[in-house]
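INPUT
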Amino acid sequence: MAQDDILARLFPEGHDVRVADGIATGTAPLGDATATVIGIADATPLGVEGALSLAGAVLAAVERGDAAPILVVIDSGSQRMRRRDELLGLNEYLAHLAKSLRLAEARGHPTIGVIHGHSAAGAFIATALATRMLVGVPGANPTVMDLPSVARVTTLPLDRLEALARDTAVFAPGLDNMVAVGAVHRVLDAEAPLGAQLAGLLAEMPDRDDRDRLGAERGGRPKAAEIAARVVEAARDA
Amino acid sequence: MSRDAASWYESTARARIGDLLDDGAFTEFLPPGERATSPHLALFDLPEAFDDGIVVGRGRLDGRDVFVAAQEGRFMGGAFGEVHGAKLVGLLRAAFEIRPAAVLILFDTGGVRLQEANAGETAIAEIMRAICEARIAGVPVIGVVGGRAGAFGGGGLIAGTCSGLVATEQGRIGVSGPEVIETNHGVEEFDARDRALVWRTTGGKHRALTGGADAFAEDAAAELRSAALGLMDAAAPFDAGTLRAEHDRLAGRLERFGSAQDAPEIWRDLGVTEDVPALDTAEFGAVLDRIGGRHGAR
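OUTPUT
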């Protein structure tokens, strides 16, 4: 869905979100509050400038101290795969964005990710996956790596991977698979007004990171929650 | 060879922990006998490891109670799969609860394990969140980057979330590896076979000069130990002041070096006229001291 269309549907009362070079920032009414909105549009890859600008908008919200919701609306590429970005330390810029979102949460801002298009790898981790609750709009297509690339790296035949992908959520692209591993909390109902659904999420924010538990319940990550809990138990006994 | 002279780069995850910590002080959580193996690799006819390529536990560093995670770069390139990631998530959640003096992460990873890509990517997000939460609780999380695989992909993002990072010359830090960039944009963009270009773009010296690492150390456990102890004491709190300072630092870097074509251009701008790759650790340390030592908040 185009960024203008998704924003109009998410914020039917209007918004002042502006997109420049694929990077979206602004505000919009949500419930009783004025939410800070950041995002990536048009499958734009996330590079050093974009990550810094999004983090700046989040830190500005923290410094305003209003504890209003922060929405992260994503249709991105991967991280920008350029030598210049690596030379400048893209890992720090992406981590800075994720840390800023977690700081905002610690200061009382509910953070909600909305993935409605593509996203992948470092761009996905630093934005949508760095929120407290991530929801998907039907048609969204998060990936880590597309199957032909997985085939190249793993040297497995593509038709074998495609067959495997039908039976396991753990490596294949797509929103359903990200729901199954617990990364996406839920999928919004595309037939119902999105704005009301979004406002409703504010009342059901999880109080801790529950993604591994969701992954176990949904079968996409059968062991993660249990392994993490066993490590915590062992640490208590050590 | 004494443990202090052994090469960190050439070493294994377990040997690194043994060399880094005080003698006899390490208790491993979910050791290999507990068979915490990947539930997914068999689908791909790939061998499993009984620790899934990461060792986690508790020990002492100069008498101080620390939690440690060490990735085994020789197993699947140290990549994050479901179990590998969950062991680190568990260690960080335990640190939030138990409050050791620090958590040390000994990186050796190319990023997400593609055979378990969705689980690995989600685990990386969980780890970054758990690092932030440990830091909010006052537990510094210190990264050590000096293994063969460096800290790449999601590993680079995790490294950037730590309170402090020490790197060796061989310790490369980044997101997209040179091969991935070359595959996507051609050899003119990044010639992955040009080893000198790879090192000066992502290696420990460049990161230490520009702020991507807070300390630089020789490729040996004793040097890394003292650097890690120093970073534990210097760790910044996880608060708005620290992240504002990081923001200004990253904005300043972009403004100052954003149009640089290659690392030596940046080094010259920093006042470093020496042949950086040729400097030994002592000489390079003197250069770092001269241009202003620590880069501060992260």
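end of record. The CA atoms of residues 113 and 134 of chain A lie 4 Å apart.
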